[in-house]
Design a protein that fits this description.
701 residues, alpha/beta, Rossmann fold, Dna Ligase, domain 1, 4 domains, 7-stranded mixed beta sheet, 6-stranded antiparallel beta sheet, 25 helices, flat, binds coenzyme A
Length: 701
């Protein structure tokens, strides 16, 4: 891990390009550091000035002659390299390069950026940016940015790939009264990237939640490692903008076509325990809730309301989001019945009804929150003339404080009448929303994070020791020697066999005699298919014959397949005819792999057969680190699972065998990074066992 403490909590900072001219970035940065209350040493660097912002100025950073933790560069791009060299010689630890004009402007900028990284590496310096707003830590306090304001002190670390978003969020947060622990603009990420700042924020005692705005991830495995470690301590929420995974999209396989542009990020975030927000609102709703409320232990939600309509709307939102409405114990019901008027609804949603004063809220909340079937509480309020809204807010806060293991959210619906109550709730750590749906969505996110975090504790990568790597290696070598990158059917079946992935027996026959012998060895009926890397659509050229039940049929099929294929595709490389045992029909599934440029091999499972791309029923996980639990989860996410479990009285399929086959495919893809695509479609699932019928393996050229 990189130690970035001296970056966010430095003892000394030099501002290179510090200026006396208001309106310049070098002016804003030094003024911000000064006014943030930074207690360390401040050294303005400017060859023309003796003094800036009340501090002695130095012509170069080398003239300071004292240790410098951080240098903030506000000089034009052309001056950055010599300045970085000076910093290296002066023993500076970290550079914050605000200057723009690097890789974001094209080839020349990219070269300049590479040289900057080279210089920094030579001296062991780390770089934030270039092309960034800078870095804030409110608890140090340290504001090395050119933002208009300093963030309020708080517990949210915000790490953003967009500087513009940083300043906008900052301004909004001041109005909202929302505080941050760290505020980091990562710019071009030439050196330090999101993973470094996740690690640093997770180690920061003032950070309770880490929020990121990302357009891409620089190093997938490192991101996962950093995020996985961080999420054990604090929630990590990412808003990932922009579609991605060009590699997956370009893939020619069925699996590639199934993987949407977001599948890899979804799989990676899930694997690392990272919560994905889909909007800015959601990102900050969750961040606020995580800093003020506990993570619910389960999915059970209670609603307390003084009006029916909002209660129903909220119940719907709970059910639709996958949360559950709490069902009370008889004791809770008895207590509510005794203490609330007969007009009240004592079942969830608990309705204290329109004529309620705050005391009924108190009774309802104090009673339901104790129920073991309640993990989270949603308090709804519609402003009536008889209700003291401030007092209702107060009893809500009291109930929340008295039950710190249950998450509270509220929606006091209205305008001016509820404003003071809403402010009171927010100020006292109850996340409050103008309408109920986002309140439920926030709870859903919190519950999901709890589930993701628990899943991280569930087991290690599922690994098998009974696989035959050497066999696979020798097949791949032979294929490459042949100048091919697609395996023939029998080769792919041997690869599957080496990893104990149950595949239908398959042999390559070069003569009719051989075909007959293989068919007899396997037992009839068999299927014959042309084995040629140049014939993609075998059926179309008359290159497939199914249901062959005798030696005569096999011999005739062999001859006709060879003839048809030669005629249909001139100069096709024909290796012979594949003889495959014809398997009984089972439920059709697909197991596949597609490679993501950032996160590596992704395993897919779903409904297979010829309708695969129409059904689009697939779940994805990263092959790296895949656990048994993840595999079971991915199976159960698909529609195919309904069939596997035994649809309409049918016998269930062998789900354990299927899960094992998926794990073995994942291991094969991890062990052989040269596999760029893999499709097993269909896999027939049976009540006992399964059979891979068509295994396609494509290697990197
Ligand atoms: N050492 C020390 N000071 C130097 C220097 C050096 N080698 N070279 C120049 N300076 C001084 C200048 O004299 C000037 O000080 P002055 O105001 O006293 O004259 C100061 O550094 C700035 O140089 P200047 O040439 O005036 O540049 P500028 O302020 O117009 O622009 C940047 C500099 C960095 C702001 C500009 O190049 C830039 O990149 N702007 C975009 C920043 C941005 O958008 N970043 C991304 C945000 S998300």
């Amino acid at each position: 891990m990189n130690d970035l403490r001296s970056l966010t909590r430095p003892e000394s900072v030099a501002v290179i390009g510090a200026s006396k001219t208001p309106g310049k970035i070098g002016y804003a940065v030094i003024e911000n550091i000064k006014s943030s209350g930074f207690k360390g040493e401040i050294y303005p660097i400017n060859p023309k000035e003796q003094e800036i912002a009340g501090y002695k100025a130095y012509p170069t950073v080398r003239d300071v002659g004292k240790p410098i933790d951080v240098a903030v560069l506000c000089v034009p791009a052309a001056a950055v390299l010599p300045v970085a060299e000076d910093c290296g010689q002066a023993g500076v630890k970290h550079l914050i390069v605000i200057t723009a004009g690097f890789k974001e402007v094209g080839k020349e900028g990219r070269e300049l950026e590479n040289k900057l990284v080279e210089t920094a590496r030579r001296y062991g310096m780390r770089i934030v940016g270039p092309n960034c707003l800078g870095v804030m830590d409110t608890h140090t306090p340290f504001n090395a940015t050119f933002a208009k304001n300093f963030a309020l002190k708080g517990n949210i670390a915000f790490i953003s790939q967009s500087g513009a978003l940083c300043v906008a969020i900052l301004d909004w947060s001041l109005k909202r009264g929302l505080g941050f622990s760290q505020f980091i603009s990562i710019g071009n990420k030439a050196d330090l990237n999101e993973a470094d700042f996740i690690e640093n924020a997770a180690e920061d005692p003032n950070t309770k939640v880490i929020c990121l705005y990302l357009e891409d991830v620089v190093n997938g495995p490192r991101f996962i490692e950093a995020a996985k470690k961080a999420t054990k301590k604090v929630p990590v929420i990412v808003l990932k903008a922009g579609v991605s995974a060009a590699g997956a999209k370009a893939a020619s396989s069925h699996t590639g076509a199934l993987a949407g542009s977001n599948a890899a990020y979804d799989a990676a975030f899930r694997h690392a325990g990272v919560l994905r927000a889909s909007t800015m609102t959601e990102l900050f709703d969750l961040a606020i809730a995580f800093t003020t409320q506990p993570i619910p232990k389960g999915r059970k939600v209670v609603i307390v309301t003084n009006s029916g309509g909002p209660g129903i709307v909220t119940s719907d939102a709970v059910e639709l989001s996958g949360l559950e409405m709490s069902r009370f114990t008889p004791e809770t019901l008895a207590e509510l019945k005794e203490k609330l008027p007969p007009t009240a609804n004592i079942h969830n949603p608990v309705d204290v009804v329109g004529d309620a004063h705050h005391d009924r809220y108190k009774i309802a909340l104090d009673t339901v929150v104790k129920d073991p079937n309640v993990d989270a509480v949603t308090v709804l309020l519609s402003p009536t003339a008889v209700l003291d809204i401030q007092k209702a807010a107060e009893v809500t806060v009291e109930a929340s404080k008295a039950n710190p293991d249950k998450a509270f959210v509220a929606s006091f619906i209205g305008g001016a009448a509820v404003e003071a109550g809403v402010n009171y709730l927010n100020a006292n750590g109850i996340p409050t929303y103008p309408f109920p749906e986002p309140a439920v969505a926030t709870l859903r996110g919190m519950v999901r994070f709890g589930e993701l975090r628990r899943a991280l504790e569930d087991g290690d990568e599922w690994v098998f020791t009974d696989v035959d790597r050497e066999q696979v290696k020798s097949i791949f070598e032979k294929v490459k020697k042949d100048g091919r990158n697609l395996l023939l059917g029998p080769e792919a079946a041997s690869v599957a066999e080496a990893y104990k992935i149950p595949a239908a027996p398959s042999r390559l026959a070069t003569t009719a005699d051989e075909a007959q012998k293989f068919a007899e060895d396997m037992g009839y009926p068999v299927v014959l298919k042309i084995a040629s890397p140049d014939i993609m659509h075998k059926t179309d050229v008359g290159g497939v014959k199914v249901g062959l039940k005798s030696a005569e049929e096999v011999r005739a099929a062999f001859e006709s397949i060879m003839e048809n294929s030669r005629k249909a595709v001139k100069d096709a490389r024909i290796y012979g005819v594949e003889v495959q045992k014809m398997m009984p029909k089972g439920d059709e599934l697909i197991i596949g792999m597609v490679k993501d440029p950032t996160f590596g091999p992704m395993i897919a499972f779903g409904s297979g057969g010829i309708l695969v791309n129409l059904l689009k029923d697939a779940a994805f996980r990263l092959a790296s680190g895949i656990t048994k639990k993840e595999i079971m989860e991915m199976i159960s996410e698909t529609k195919a699972y309904t069939i596997l479990k035994g649809f309409r009285g049918q016998e269930p399929d062998d789900i354990p065998a299927l899960a094992e086959a998926i794990a073995r495919v994942a291991q094969l893809c991890r062990d052989f990074p040269e596999i760029v695509e893999l499709d097993i479609n269909p896999v027939f699932a049976y009540p006992k066992g399964l059979s891979a019928l068509d295994v396609k393996v494509k290697l990197a050229m």
